[in-house]
Amino acid sequence: MQNLKEGELVHLIDKRGRRYQLLLKAGSSFSSTHGAISHDDIIGLEDGSVIRSSLRDSIFVVRPTLAEYITKMRKGAQIIYPKDIAVILMLADIFPGAKVLEAGTGSGALTTALLRAVGKDGIVVSYEKNTEFQAVAQKNIDTFFGKVERTDCSGELILKEQDVYQGIEEKELDRILLDLSEPWRVLEHAEESLLNGGILLCYNPTVLQIYKLSRRLELRYGRSFRTMGIYEVGLREWEIKDRSMRPEHKMIAHTGFIFVARKCTARG
Ligand SMILES: C[S@@+](CC[C@H](N)C(=O)[O-])C[C@H]1O[C@@H](n2cnc3c(N)ncnc32)[C@H](O)[C@@H]1O
Q1: What confidence tens digit (pLDDT) does each residue in 195-247 have?
Q2: What average pLDDT does this structure show over 101-111?
Q3: Ligand 1, atom 13: nearest CA belongs to which residue?
Q4: Which of the four CATH numbers 3.40.50.2300, 2.40.50.140, 3.30.1330.10, 3.40.50.150 does domain 67-263 have?
Q5: 174 C-alpha vs ligand 1 centroid, how far in Å?
Q6: pLDDT at 153
Q7: What is the 3-state secondary structure (H, E, C) of the chain?
Q8: Which of 70, 180, 186, 258 to mutate to test the pocket of ligand 1 (most atoms within 8 A of CB)?
Q9: Engineering a disulfide at 125: which of 48, 116, 158, 232 sits with its beta carbon 3.0 to 4.6 angstroms away?
Q10: Which pLDDT tens digit goes with each residue over 30-46?
Q11: Which ligand 1 atom is the nearest neighbour of the CA of 130?
Q12: Distance from the alpha carbon of residue 71 to the mean position of ligand 1, in angstroms
């Protein structure tokens, strides 16, 4: 692994776990309650180095993980949290080389994770109807693959400024992932565009949306889709301090439901 270099994005973490994001630039300096830190003192170090600020505070320097990057990146639309993205990648069975369609792009959190998971032989087509969100997403994705990720392992990205309710141009898709308010309006298009055996995954915050989606799928598309499961993800952090070891008082409780269906061929 190469040492940290100019132009890379790093996170500085203090003793209390507070995190600062920095784009390394020779000759620059970063100031905080810990005093000053010269970028030149970081450039050339190994990932995971511990340095001292001008006030002699201990600072941990790391390349952010994708989850850490997503949490800190600029938000346009509400993102899917890393805890859910982790499970979504597994439930949608995103594999290297997959052809995936996603809508809406939002801030690009899920898009970035999908691009990484499909690898250099895969394609992610992402529909977004809001121009401003699309621009934010594009920047977030470019920053991750240009200034954070070390390897050139991203899939091909096709961002479309398009309303997915109007239709899906792509055919023979392996996977379709929807994070928008009325996923049932995409069922008709997903039926045409998804390969048999392909996976449709929808992410929605309310049970009413999931209920409407599953009823519509059952009543109108029961011959084309089979519901595989509905899930939610709880991730509770624990605190270990002195002689105490217990769950954190606060947690991100409800975020969204994950609905998974598979495309099937009707016989007889
Ligand atoms: C919750 S955000 C998606 C966040 C994204 N999954 C992420 O992780 O960053 C929902 C997005 O869907 C977009 N959207 C809503 N309806 C749409 C449609 N019919 N076609 C395309 N995009 C749509 C919205 O503009 C919004 O940006």
Answers
A1: 999 999 999 999 999 999 999 999 999 999 999 999 999 999 999 988 999 99
A2: 98
A3: 104
A4: 3.40.50.150
A5: 20
A6: 83
A7: CCCCCCCCEEEEECCCCCEEEEECCCCCEEEECCEEEEHHHCCCCCCCEEEECCCCCEEEEECCCHHHHHHHCCCCCCCCCHHHHHHHHHHCCCCCCCEEEEECCCCCHHHHHHHHHHCCCCEEEEEECCHHHHHHHHHHHHHHHHHHCCCCCCCEEEEEECCHHHCCCCCCEEEEEECCCCHHHHHHHHHHHEEEEEEEEEEECCHHHHHHHHHHHHHHHCCCEEEEEEECCCCCCEEEECCEEEECCCCCCCCCEEEEEEECCCCC
A8: 180
A9: 158
A10: 999 999 999 999 999 99
A11: 25
A12: 18
The CATH architecture to which 9-62 belongs is: Roll (3.10)
Instruction: Look at residue 166 in the predicted model and tell me its pLDDT.
Output: 98
CB under 6 Å to ligand 1: residues?
A: 77-80, 103-104, 106-110, 127-130, 133, 163-165, 179-180
pTM of whole model > 0.90? Answer: yes
Calculate mean pLDDT across residues 74-91: 96
Least confident of 50-54, 124-128, 152-156: 152-156
Atom 16 (ligand 1): residue with closest C-alpha?
A: 180
pLDDT tens across 111-129, in order?
999 999 999 999 999 999 9
